[in-house]
């Protein structure tokens, strides 16, 4: 497959590789972040009229999943939370290495679960103030982690947003690559990872000629800037390539993360449809629990962690046994990749829905914000008729189409992994069948959830 | 105990696989939309927010904030009535009293209007206090909830799996015949 190197495109390549190129994108998102924090703390505390809630929960989520699937991990490239991190580095506060026992994705999985649980429990989407606090906590955490640890420990091992982006960038159409591996072999300084006098090396300590995965790559392009031979490419690739071919040794943590994130997609959407109330009420009576926080912890703990964890172990065991093997971890590691397309389509259907129905609302929200500060730059009356980005009739069919495309993508990846692993198609099918059955069940569950009216926690549940 | 566990699992499965549409239990964020912002109505300024977006048959919530026009202060003791009338087709009009109890923000008023038919509806909000009477209206398109038949929601994934099985069956057949030929 012929690839395109984005860094060779006139203008774009130069901008991306320019020393301050990343800073331009970061500066733009920093302004957005400051707006979120300022309006969250000082603006109207009604979610649909506040920039904090609209930008965070409608725009960010929808745009990031679209970017990941159609371009790559460009959010991490422009991430404003890395600015305080860089500041910590510049202040030479960087210190010890991240503990070896935590050099995996378990903490990241815990932090992503934590943020989803807080989201459900505290109704973050409905509170501009809490949304602003989350942003502030994020800034502080990224600064402190970078100040205390080296190697971008926050991005690599903790950040829930980055972890989400890393997982779904596995199916992204772009990847950092060496243009010529022979140049890397003769390179002495390895500036891409070690850095040069002018430019820092890779923050997450990836060595360009060995990159075969987008996992942990923030697209910061420091490698491209540091390379004295101009030997780093940001190339297009087949989105399925890494899912099928990735040969890097990986433990249970990554397999679990991929499957768990797909389940989180289901549970996050499930948390917004009416049947969740029935489950919550029944569970409250059954467990005699009155605390909503604990009830949500049980529901989402089971759905997001326990269920995918048990299924991963069970499917690995069944799958390996059916193929006459005992390589459970290897089986899990390879087949878990097939849940990236279905997971991304669940998130796309959900977050894309919110972006499609409320994307244009940012115009009156921002107009209203300016007017509240005496600025009539965008008119003197907010146009509250703006809301939909797409015709209403298109949205549901597009959600279903996205789901079916994700399902098809997952089946294809599953089939190719099976064929790669086994010598005969019959044996491959025996091995992949349990994984395919789970895919079918997840797709049916997702389609059923999207068939329900999407809304959020009702007041009756809260006893108001 | 065992029955309870089975009941819970059944409930969970049924809620995931349910194809019947369940309706709103309150005003929320499933696409909350500002319809009127500080709209003058008699001695009041009124903000109206609807949810979900798009509103569907029997699933339409309305939140109302009432401000005193003179001072901009929020009025907490108003009687707020919300009505919906069909526009250009015949259906029964409906009305509900909006209350603080139903509102996510305790200083506002909210009501759930179980609009029975899809189409264009004229929604009117009436406010009454000692200060006098005020009324605002806006048009609201109500849609039928999207429905996905079992043919797609179950048939497509199961069909996909069957196709995968057939592809592997064919591959196996091809590989066997190739082996025979080479032998």
How much of the sequence of chain A is in beta strands?
A: under 5%
Proportion of beta-strand residues of chain B? 35-45%
- Helix and strand sequence of chain A: HHHHHHHHHEHHHEHHHHHHHHHH
* C-alpha geometry of chain B: elongated
Mean pLDDT of chain A: 91
Briefly note the structural class of the backbone of chain A.
mainly alpha
Give the key terms.
heterodimer; A: about 475 residues; mainly alpha; two-stranded antiparallel ribbon; about 0% strand; disordered C terminus; B: about 180 residues; alpha+beta; four-stranded antiparallel sheet; elongated
Structure explained in plain terms:
Chain A has 464 residues and is mainly alpha-helical. Chain A is built from 22 helices and two strands. Chain A has a two-stranded antiparallel sheet. Chain A is globular and about 65 Å long. Chain B has 183 residues and is of the alpha+beta class. In chain B, 36% of the residues are buried. Chains A and B meet through helix 15, helix 18, helix 20, helix 21 and helix 22 of A and helix 1, strand 1, strand 2 and helix 3 of B.
């Amino acid at each position: 497959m012929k690839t395109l190197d984005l860094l060779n495109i006139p203008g774009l390549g130069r901008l991306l590789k320019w020393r301050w190129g990343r800073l331009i994108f970061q500066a733009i998102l920093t302004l957005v972040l400051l707006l979120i924090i300022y309006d969250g703390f000082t603006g109207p505390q009604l979610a649909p009229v506040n920039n904090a809630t609209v930008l965070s929960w409608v725009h960010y989520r929808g745009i990031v999943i679209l970017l990941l699937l159609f371009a790559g991990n460009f959010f991490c490239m422009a991430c404003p939370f890395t600015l305080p991190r860089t500041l910590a580095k510049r202040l030479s506060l960087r210190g010890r290495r991240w503990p070896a026992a935590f050099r995996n994705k378990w903490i990241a999985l815990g932090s992503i679960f934590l943020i989803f649980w807080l989201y459900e429990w505290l109704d973050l989407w409905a509170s501009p103030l809490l949304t602003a606090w989350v942003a502030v906590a994020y800034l502080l955490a990224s600064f402190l982690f970078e100040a205390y640890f080296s190697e971008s420990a926050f991005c690599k091992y903790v950040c829930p947003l980055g972890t989400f982006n890393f997982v779904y960038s596995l199916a992204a159409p772009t990847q950092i690559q060496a243009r010529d591996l022979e140049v890397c072999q003769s390179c002495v300084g390895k500036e891409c990872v070690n850095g040069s006098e002018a430019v820092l090396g890779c923050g997450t300590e990836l060595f360009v000629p060995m990159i075969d995965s987008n996992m942990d790559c923030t697209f910061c392009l420091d490698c491209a800037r540091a390379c004295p031979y101009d030997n780093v490419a940001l190339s297009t690739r087949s989105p399925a390539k890494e899912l099928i071919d990735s040969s890097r040794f990986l433990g249970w943590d990554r397999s679990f993360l991929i499957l768990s994130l797909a389940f989180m997609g289901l549970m996050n959407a499930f948390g917004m449809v009416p049947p969740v109330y029935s489950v919550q009420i029944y569970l409250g009576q059954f467990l005699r629990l009155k605390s909503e926080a604990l009830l949500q912890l049980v529901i989402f703990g089971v759905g997001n962690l326990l269920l995918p964890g048990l299924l991963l172990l069970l499917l690995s065991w069944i799958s390996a046994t059916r193929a006459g093997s005992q390589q459970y971890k290897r089986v899990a590691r390879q087949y878990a990749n097939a849940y990236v397309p279905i997971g991304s389509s669940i998130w796309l259907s959900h977050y894309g829905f919110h972006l499609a129905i409320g994307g244009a609302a940012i115009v009156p929200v921002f107009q209203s914000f300016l007017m509240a500060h005496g600025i009539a730059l965008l008119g003197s009356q907010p146009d509250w008729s703006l809301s939909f980005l797409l015709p209403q009739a298109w949205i549901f069919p597009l959600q279903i189409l996205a789901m079916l495309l994700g399902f098809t993508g997952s089946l294809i990846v599953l089939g190719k992994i099976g064929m790669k692993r086994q010598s005969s198609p019959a044996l491959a099918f025996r091995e992949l069948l349990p994984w395919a059955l789970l895919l079918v069940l997840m797709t049916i569950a997702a389609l059923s959830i999207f068939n329900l009216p999407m809304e959020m926690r009702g007041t009756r549940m809260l006893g108001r | 105990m065992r029955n309870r566990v089975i009941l819970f699992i059944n409930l969970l499965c049924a809620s995931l696989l349910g194809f019947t549409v369940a309706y709103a239990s309150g005003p929320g964020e499933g696409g909350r939309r500002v319809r009127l912002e500080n709209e003058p109505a008699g001695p009041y300024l009124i903000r109206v927010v609807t949810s979900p977006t798009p509103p569907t048959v029997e699933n339409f919530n309305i939140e109302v904030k009432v401000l005193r026009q003179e001072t901009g202060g929020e009025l907490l003791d108003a009687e707020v009535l919300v009505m919906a009338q069909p526009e250009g087709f015949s259906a029964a009009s409906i009305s509900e009293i909006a209350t603080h109890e139903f509102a996510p923000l305790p200083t506002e008023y909210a009501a759930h209007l179980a609009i029975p038919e899809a189409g264009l509806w004229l929604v009117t909000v009436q406010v009454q206090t000692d200060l006098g009477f005020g009324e605002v209206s806006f048009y609201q398109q109500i849609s039928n909830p999207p429905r996905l038949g079992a043919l797609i929601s179950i048939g497509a994934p199961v069909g996909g799996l069957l196709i995968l099985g057939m592809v592997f069956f064919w591959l196996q057949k091809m590989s066997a015949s190739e082996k025979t030929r080479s032998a």
